[in-house]
Design goal:
This protein is an alpha+beta fold. The protein has one domain: Peroxisomal Thiolase, Chain A, domain 1 (3-Layer(aba) Sandwich), CATH 3.40.47.10. The protein is built from 15 helices and 15 strands. The protein has an eight-stranded mixed beta sheet, with helices on both faces. A hairpin with a 7-residue loop joins strand 9 and strand 10. Helix 1 packs across helix 2. The longest helix has 23 residues. The radius of gyration is 22 Å and the shape is globular. The termini are far apart. The chain binds coenzyme A. Coenzyme A (COA) binds next to helix 2, helix 6 and helix 7.
């Protein structure tokens, strides 16, 4: 059976930058450490007036196709994952295909196109769809283009405003991939929850504190189901563990939970016991509250151990570098975390070929999924061309007034001048609305 996975990846960041630790914190009168340390964020990427989920997705896909020398005939599927869609019928993938057809001779008329929705986990679900399509043999030698694109904007003043972000990631899924092979084994944790939703509204209704707890509960459930399929999951089995990263502080919580859970009953727990004792076992307690208090105290001590700190620094911290600078990209976030780790390993000159990643995705509403990936021999060539660091460095830094104006530009309820802060070059741009309310796009040289 041939291997199936991600062959190539490209990222497109929104062109604007809102500094959280200075501009945003100053305006709110907050301690910058709340952002830098508490949430773990330095800045958000935001879309300029001529950018939206279509332009960012199409630009990421275009760059990927150019780099890989792919033509429309090579692509049998275009799956777009987003939770920022502006149309309940026409999928974003048709707009993206339309953009790409402006610049290629061929077309995507024989490619199956769709749009996936399940909050932030939809990007991973789109990878699954592509994997299953190829595994079923329906691809007939063609690859799938998966695009996760979002403008993660919150209502002004919502606690989530500090975690905003905008960008797209395009992934080419194919047989014999160059970057990572996806495992068939998967663990799911899924339940009917109302932690974050957009009932026919642009900005989300969020119960932020609850969403943090639901994320942890569902991820634990997913990890347990994966463990049941693969006999054991140990934290040192994986070179990196990219998690869905709404903000790095969330990953700090889930990583500690996952580490505690997976070292239980292992030699690592025995070694840690010299310093902090063994983990509390529920059977030792008369009631659940007493057990949970003991677990919390154990985790507070575990977090401070050398073994945990070294593991976190090696296997989790590198996954967060991009997120700290761009914020939450919803459906793209876990895939940006994977790229972040691989870029870090590449710049450190590490050889990861054959190593494994454990990938933890989450979408509010709510569902978590965990699976393993194996880094392929061609990973360095596949990752070295990704230019996200340059894009981050070249963003236009907004003043607070400018941030307010660009938030209004992207607010469907407001009719304000579309003042832009940067000049587009060799990319797709939003070009107004057509007679049926459709969005129109053009490529600018
Ligand atoms: N120095 C250091 N840390 C500080 C700080 C300071 N001056 N002030 C606050 N913090 C820490 C808090 O202790 C907290 O960390 P902890 O959770 O580890 O204790 C963190 O910063 C956030 O502070 P908090 O007061 O909880 O922030 P908030 O009320 O503004 O909201 C969210 C945080 C996550 C609820 C909010 O950003 C949100 O709603 N986000 C959108 C939903 C989301 O992303 N959910 C995640 C699952 S998908």
């Amino acid at each position: 059976m041939s291997s199936i996975g991600i062959d190539a990846v490209e990222i497109w960041s929104g062109k604007l930058e809102l500094e959280l630790t200075t501009t945003f914190a100053d305006e709110k009168g907050d301690d910058p450490e709340k952002y830098a340390d508490g949430l773990g964020l330095h800045a958000s990427s935001l879309p300029d007036a001529y950018e939206d989920i279509v332009t960012m997705g199409a630009n990421a896909a275009h760059r990927l196709m150019e780099r890989e020398g792919i033509t429309p005939d090579d692509v049998g599927r275009i799956d777009v994952a987003t939770e920022s869609s502006f149309d309940n019928s026409k999928p974003v993938s048709t707009y993206i295909a339309g953009c790409l057809e402006e610049v290629y001779d061929g077309d995507f008329h024989h490619a199956n196109k769709g749009e996936r929705k399940f909050a932030c986990i939809a990007g991973t679900q789109s990878l699954d769809d592509a994997y299953n399509w190829i595994r079923a043999g329906r691809n007939r030698g063609r690859a799938a283009l998966v695009v996760a694109t979002d403008t993660a904007l919150y209502e002004r003043g919502d606690p989530g405003e500090a975690t905003q972000g905008a960008g797209a990631i395009a992934m080419l899924v194919d047989e014999d991939p160059s970057l990572v092979e996806l495992s068939a084994a998967q663990g799911y944790g899924s339940a009917d929850e109302t932690d974050f939703l957009k009932p026919n509204q642009q900005f989300p209704s969020v119960d932020g504190k609850r969403s943090v707890q639901v994320y942890l509960d569902r991820m634990l459930e997913a990890g347990q189901q994966l463990e049941a399929q693969t006999a054991s999951v140990h934290p040192t089995d994986f070179a990196y563990i990219p998690f869905h990263t709404p903000f790095p502080g969330m990953v700090r919580k889930v990583a500690l939970l996952g580490f505690r859970h997976t070292v239980r009953g292992t030699e690592m727990e025995d070694a840690l016991a010299d310093d902090i004792g063994f983990q509390p076992r529920e059977a030792e307690f008369d009631d659940r509250d007493a057990y949970e208090t003991a677990i919390r105290e154990y985790m507070d001590e575990l977090r401070e151990t050398d073994a945990y700190e070294a593991w976190y620094a090696d296997r989790i911290e590198p996954t967060l570098a991009l997120s700290r600078e761009v914020g939450n990209w919803y459906t793209g976030s876990v895939h940006v975390a994977r790229v972040s780790a691989l870029l870090d390993a590449h710049s450190a000159g590490e050889d990861l070929a054959g190593d494994r990643l454990l990938v933890g995705s989450y979408g509010s509403g709510a569902q978590a999924e965990m699976h393993a990936e194996t880094v392929m021999d061609g990973w360095q060539d596949a990752i070295r061309e990704v230019t996200i660091d340059d894009q981050i460095a070249n963003r236009y830094e907004l003043s607070f007034d400018e941030y307010e104006s660009i938030h209004d530009v992207h607010n469907y309820e407001k009719d304000v001048p579309r003042t832009r802060f940067t000049t587009p070059s060799a990319e797709f741009v939003f070009d107004g609305w057509g007679p049926m309310g459709e969005r129109q796009y053009r490529f600018v040289e």
